[in-house]
Automatic annotation (TrEMBL):
UniProt keyword annotations, A-Z: Iron, Iron-sulfur, Metal-binding, S-adenosyl-L-methionine
GO molecular function, one term: iron-sulfur cluster binding
Protein name as annotated: Radical SAM domain-containing protein
Transmembrane segments: none
Coiled coil: none
Record-linked InterPro entries: Aldolase_TIM, rSAM, rSAM_sf
Organism: Streptomyces coelicolor (strain ATCC BAA-471 / A3(2) / M145)
Entry annotated with the keyword Iron: yes
Length: 478
């Protein structure tokens, strides 16, 4: 009897799909506008999209041009209990409306202004709500902060894995050791230093990590994008994400003709850095006017896509992945459990194994066996991303019309509405039970929210052990 009960429990645990996750994706697909229901669309097929926190710690201690936060953001005190209370409410709503699993950014001002304990508690709250958290930072903190975040007071590991997105670009002023970077190249030692801290964390404490590198792109650093990729691709970042600057947030910090760095121009520079064409239609995250993504890997200094968009056999692999594995949650699932679930799908659909082996053989041929051997079969997965926020002057009216149920006629506003409807990046408002696109948060809601927070959490002089005194303003793309 006990054995039967155990087998039943095992059967339940290894079921390939979580029905709540599958239902959430079905809802997501239904809600997408037709413009986003493309063959490569990930939303509704393998995920519900990305999420972010807001109003939890708006302050930052670097100055950036541009900064997407409102003027009041830096007048709000960083406060652990407030952060935790807000995150709990926001995560609860995200779970309710978007299902049990998602990637969520712990984002606001600068995350390392939270004490390591407060930061760790915030990550734990997010995990408790089925969220895979990623902390957004300018990266200007030390080993000591990272160690105290990863380990509890008794020196035991709090987390098996940490994810960070670090923002580095020459428009961020006030970084220790390089207050005003003259160019992108001069930041490379800081990019390397940041990644090295996580290697040490793994070596000394066994805590794994995922690192993303973020960079705002304006006409002022467009021609440096390719070199950043070439110089930094092997530092340890699993993602290079570029954000063409938008006229959003604090208008005192709009210093350039941002729109001259067009999405096509930025993507072309990313391709130049990767040394190959990057097909962003194989997989899509929401609207491609907002997000372009290319998934692949490096062998040595050459980057290869997982799937070749020009090869119909590879596109068939994508379609089979969505069909048979799309509803499976990969992130946060222990490897043994994931392997068991995959085995069950393969057992039910043996053709998936054949498809996978053929794809593997093709991919090895593409890279070249010799090259793989020369690099001791070392493969580094690196994803390239471009996320283009929209300007406040179109987001505000387009959103207002959407609230009234009106469809815009004017082409720019119509495009904005389509993009907002397919938004990949949501923020939660527990006070009224709604979700809003991050563009709307920054363009419409942030000013009043931060003004209210300024009263709720008046600024007091707070010094953290790892940073110099606060009091400057601004943040990066966030
Ligand atoms: S936040 Fe704005 S730019 Fe980003 S995916 Fe959503 S609508 Fe598009």
């Amino acid at each position: 009897m006990r054995i039967t009960a155990k087998l039943r429990a095992l059967e339940r645990a290894t079921r390939p799909y979580d029905t709540a996750f599958a239902a959430a994706m079905e809802r997501r697909w239904k809600e997408l506008p037709d413009t986003a229901k493309t063959p490569g669309q990930i939303l509704g097929r393998h995920g519900v999209g990305c999420e972010g926190t807001h109003g939890v710690f708006p302050k930052c201690n670097l100055k950036c041009t541009p900064c997407y936060h409102s003027r009041d953001a830096n007048q709000v005190r960083v406060d652990g209990p407030h952060t935790h209370e807000q995150i709990t409410a926001q995560m609860r709503l995200l779970r309710e409306l978007r299902g049990p699993r998602a990637h969520t950014q712990l984002i606001g001002g600068e995350v390392s202004l939270l004490t390591p304990d407060d930061h760790a508690a915030a990550l734990a709250i997010m995990r408790d709500h089925g969220r895979e958290p990623m902390s957004f930072t300018h990266g200007d903190f030390d080993d000591d902060y990272l160690t105290r975040l990863a380990l509890g007071p008794d020196d035991t590991r709090r987390f098996g894995r940490l994810s960070f997105a670090a923002h580095f670009d020459k428009f961020m002023y006030g970084r220790r050791g390089i207050e005003r970077p003259p160019d992108e190249q001069s930041l490379n030692p800081y990019r390397a230093r940041f990644a090295a801290m996580f290697r040490r964390l793994r070596r000394e404490h066994g805590v794994r990590s995922f690192l993303a590198h973020n960079m705002t792109v304006t006409p002022g650093n467009l021609d440096e994008v390719a070199a950043v990729i070439r110089d930094c691709h092997a530092m340890g970042y699993g993602m290079f994400s570029f954000q063409p600057a938008a006229f959003l947030g604090d208008d005192r910090r709009w210093k350039e003709k941002f729109r001259e760095a067009t999405p096509d121009a930025v993507w072309a520079e990313i391709e130049r850095g990767a040394g190959t064409r990057l097909d962003y239609r194989v997989f899509e995250n929401g609207d491609v006017r907002c997000n372009r993504t290319a998934y692949g890997f490096y062998v040595g200094h050459r980057w290869y896509p997982f799937l070749d968009g020009d090869d119909p056999r590879d596109l068939a692999v994508r379609d089979a992945f969505f069909r048979y594995f799309g509803k499976m949650t990969f992130t946060g699932t222990p490897p043994a459990l994931l392997a068991a679930r995959i085995t069950r799908v393969v057992a039910r659909h043996p053709s998936t194994a054949v498809t996978a082996f053929r794809w593997l053989a093709r991919t090895i041929r593409r890279v070249g066996l010799l090259r793989l051997v020369r690099h001791r079969m070392r493969v580094r997965t690196v994803t390239f991303v471009m996320h283009q926020f929209m300007d406040a002057d179109v987001v505000a009216p387009a959103w207002e019309m959407m609230q009234r149920g009106e469809q815009a006629e004017e082409p720019r506003l119509r495009e904005t509405q389509e993009r907002l409807a397919a938004c990949h990046y949501a923020m939660a408002h527990p006070e009224n039970g709604t979700l809003v696109p991050a563009c709307v948060q920054h363009a419409v809601l942030d000013p009043a929210e931060n003004a209210a927070l300024r009263t709720l959490l008046p600024f007091v002089e707070v010094r953290t052990p790892t940073r110099r005194s606060p009091g400057t303003s601004g943040t990066s793309d966030r």
